[in-house]
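Hi P.,

Sorry for the delay on this. The queue was packed all week, but I finally got your sequence through. Input first:
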Amino acid sequence: MKKVGLILLACLVLTGCTAVRIDTQNIDNMVSVILSKDNDLYNHVGKGYKYYVPRGVTYIDTNEFNEKLYSNGNYYYLYVDAVSYYHKQEIEYQEDKNAYYSKKFEINDKVAYLQINEQKEKNKYFIEFMYNYARIETLVDKEDINDAVMNASYILSTVKFNSNVIKLMLNEDYFTNKEEIYDEFTSKQSEVETDNFLQYSDKDNKQAKEENED
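Then the structure:
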């Protein structure tokens, strides 16, 4: 049974010791509850950061600061912007009244935004979720939206940066041609079709469907 099929789900928030009831039918509540928890648990380490891959989600691959994850027939694309974190760049987001869902959150003195837009030509919904200098993008069926938002919330809530490692990489010119301050986390929904990071190929979609059926 899918998580979205439940009205209320008793979840152990990642610390494993605090039981929290999350209304999985209410995206506002789901995001607020999960992101408000200060979770230190992690099981994956990247370049200057670490985060927790929740149960049911599988890590696939890494390309620079882009990571590919998979769950229940859907691919998730995670981008972590260590440069913007290092420079403490302010996040700008304007809620879009024309979107299927669009909301800005301010949680734990950090800005988050979640935007969902219908891709009518694909009969899918594009999810763009940003929190704490990390962004997750995925393209899912309508019935998978809440499940995807929950997974993304857990992942983004656990992203932790190692300032010393990031500073060392900057000093060693690791970020050559990358240390430019720009508005990376302004919503880029209009660029969905051309963005190099989010390429949903027919091959990926077919593979996801086959893996989900196994």
